[in-house]
Amino acid sequence: MSVEVERKFLCNADILKTLQETGVCVGQRQFRDQYFDNPSFDLTRRDIWLRKRKECWELKCPITVNVAEEASGVQSKAAALCSRYRELTNLPEIQRRVKDVLKDICGDRETEAGPSQEDESWLSEMNLVCFADFTTVRQSFTLEEKGVQIDLDQADFGYHVGEIEVLVPEAGDVQSALEKIERTARKLGLTDDQQVNGKMNVYLQRNHPEHYARLLREHVF
Fold this sequence. Notes:
Shape: globular
Strand order of the largest sheet: 1-5-4-3-2-6-7-8
Distance between the termini: 24 Å
Helix content: 25-40%
Largest sheet: 8 strands, antiparallel, barrel
Number of helices: 8
Radius of gyration: 18 Å
């Protein structure tokens, strides 16, 4: 289990030039994402994201901001521009966590938590359906900052966005990750302090405005 600390940005010609001239391209890949929730949005309105990517399951759960991480102005700004999610990739653990969140809906009914990636009967047992399905082409770069990856994503619904990402081990130093992201942002010439929408924000706004509006009311977006 790890914590993903990430800042999104809009890539322009100058940033791309910086990446091409001073960064190292570590690969390009294409993947399909499918996101699941029940009809009441009981996962996503809690900012919990159940995703199937390239036949593997992932669950992203928000973590709270530690006051110590905001001890200085720089850290506070970095924290405000970054998202932080705990990532689960073990399927039985994902199933247990989802069932716990949805216990009021699922009641006491037992759900099989087998390790099989192919058996998806647990989705219907928890009344989970796919609400988002899109494909992304991702080009990844590294700069001098150790442990930092920069991704340029092109989603098939016409949205392009960049991400500066650091993966922190469970109970690791999130403050250090925020500082690395801030230094990398400066190297890329990022000066805008406004939040940038992620792919899911834009996808829901365009394709499922009622779901998007619900998450706005719940202050998820």
